[in-house]
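Hi everyone, sorry if this is the wrong subforum. Our group has a chain we'd like a structural model of before ordering constructs, and none of us has done structure prediction before. Sequence below.
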Amino acid sequence: MAAGGHSRPRLMPRSRMTLVRQIFISPGHNFFGRYGKVADTHPAVEVEEVQCVTGMGLKGDRFFGYRPDYKGQVTFFSEEVWRQLQEHFKVHGHAPSVLRRNVILSGADLNALIGRRFSIQGVLFEATEECRPCHWMDNAVAPGAEEWLKGRGGLRCRVLSDGVLRREAA
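Answer:
Right subforum, don't worry. Here is the predicted structure as tokens:
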């Protein structure tokens, strides 16, 4: 443990390279707070880079400055899990933006980071919990997607340092 009782920041494992494959922000909520209502239609906009702001989240995103110390200031999702999901449900025409996660990473075991601090491209994050799938996934992807995604829904994090995340080529 580092001073103050926090674990030291951990870089993504070097055994396989972690890449930021896609970044999405949205100006509004489509599902959050809408249980029992129809989904809204705010677009998830793919961007080449995004400004990360300590304690606030991603500039331009619906959760930016949502509330102090919010545990879902940014969400990550695994590109490998996305491919498995597409194959399992035979839905190859969707983009990962349907999941409403912010950053798609390749080469990262997201669940292994829960409860830890880690750094990507010099930006420090604290992984708070799995980004649990909700019933909307059955509409956004395919019936059964919510159940299939349990334990693989992505990662919710706080932003602990300012910086920029940029999309990387393979």
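For your construct planning: The two ends are 34 Å apart (CA to CA). Helices lie at 79-89, 136-140, 145-149.
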